Amino acid sequence: MKRLSLTVLAAALTLLSGCASIIHGPSQEVEISSNPSNATVTSNGRMLGQTPVTATLARKDEHVIKIELDGYTTYETTLTRTTSGWFWGNIILGGLIGCAIDVVTGSFYKLTPEQVNAELSEGNARVETDTDGLYVFVTLEPKASWELIGQLATD
Question: How many CB atoms lie within 10 A of CB 82?
C-alpha cells in the first residue's frame, strides 16, 4: 500500500510540475483593435480577422502584427516574449522537470504587449512609439482635400 501511495504521489508531482503550463498554458489571448475598426489583422502573414479581434497566439514565438485598411497607412508592431512570472513557481514546486516542461511547451513566456490599439492614419502620415522614443512620419505630397494652415518660408 505504501508503495502504491509513493507511485501515485510521484505521478502527481510529474503531472503538476510545469507550473506555467498549468496556470496559463502554451498560448495567450491578445486583444487587437484599431481606429477606425474593421481593419485586417495578420500575424507573421497568417490572417487573424478584422478589428476588433482577440487572437490566440503561441507564447513560444514572437509575432509581427500587421493591421491594414484601404486608404490608411499600415500599422505594424512586434509582440515579444518575456519570462512569465509563473515560471518561477517551478523553482519551488516543479524543479528541473517543471522548468523543462514550461520551456518546451512555450509556457515559460508571456507575450508583450498584451493588448494592441492601432490608430490608423490616412495617407502616408503615421506615429509610432517604441522603447527608443516617438517617431513621426509625414507625407511630402498634400491631398487636394487638405486645408492650408501655414507655410514655411524658404530663403
Answer: 10
